TrEMBL record:
<protein>
    <recommendedName>
        <fullName>N-acetyltransferase domain-containing protein</fullName>
    </recommendedName>
</protein>
<dbReference type="InterPro" id="IPR016181">
    <property type="entry name" value="Acyl_CoA_acyltransferase"/>
</dbReference>
Length: 173
C-alpha cells in the first residue's frame, strides 16, 4: 500500500491503518539497508512497487554481451540473492534478446522487470526486444502469452512444433 492510499482510506480501524503504516515504514527502512548492500556489487536501476504493494529494488549486472535485471523485494533483507531475474543478451546493434525470466510467479515482478527492460532498450537505442517460447514453456504457455501481449509484444506460436517467438518493436510502453 502506498502512503497516499493509506491516507485516503475511509475503511478499517485506526489500529489497522497504524499497522499498515508501520509495515510501510519498515519496508522503507529495509529498502535503505538493502540498497546499501546491493550497490556494493550491482548497479541500482530503480525502485518500484508490486501489485501486492511491496517495495522492490531493481538492479542490474551488465557485461558487454549479456545482462541481468534483478529484483529484491524489501519484505526481506538482501542476502545476496535476487527474488526475480530477467536474463538477456545484446544480440546486435538493434536487438535485445530475453533468455529467461526466473522467480516467483504472480507477484508482479515480471511486469516490473519488463518495464525496466523496455526503458533499458529505449535508453540504449535498441529497436527490438525478442525472445523464444520453447517446449519447457508449454505447461504455462497461456500465462506467458497473456503476459507478453499485455506488454505489447507480438506473439507467434507454432502449436504443432511447440515453439514460438515474441517481438517488441519499441513503439509502445
Amino acid at each position: 500500500m502506498s502512503f497516499s492510499k493509506l491516507l485516503e482510506m475511509d475503511t478499517g480501524s485506526q489500529a489497522d491503518r497504524q499497522e499498515q503504516l508501520e509495515s510501510m515504514e519498515f519496508q522503507i527502512f529495509r529498502m535503505r539497508e538493502n540498497m546499501k548492500e546491493i550497490s556494493k556489487k550491482y548497479e541500482i536501476v530503480g525502485i518500484d512497487q508490486t501489485k501486492h504493494d511491496h517495495w522492490v529494488i531493481v538492479f542490474k549486472d551488465e557485461g558487454k554481451e549479456t545482462a541481468q535485471l534483478m529484483i529484491n523485494d524489501c519484505e526481506a533483507a538482501f542476502r545476496g540473492a535476487w527474488d526475480s531475474c530477467l536474463q538477456l543478451q545484446y544480440k546486435n546493434e538493434n536487438t535485445i534478446h530475453i533468455d529467461d525470466i526466473k522467480g516467483t510467479e504472480e507477484q508482479g515482478y515480471g511486469s516490473i522487470l519488463m518495464n525496466h527492460l523496455k526503458n533499458l532498450a529505449y535508453e540504449k537505442n535498441y529497436q527490438y526486444v525478442t525472445g523464444d517460447l520453447v517446449k519447457r514453456d508449454w505447461d504455462h504457455l497461456n500465462r506467458l502469452e497473456h503476459f507478453y501481449r499485455k506488454h505489447h509484444f507480438d506473439v507467434d506460436i507454432d502449436y504443432d512444433n511447440r515453439v514460438g517467438e515474441i517481438v517488441w518493436n519499441g513503439d509502445s510502453f
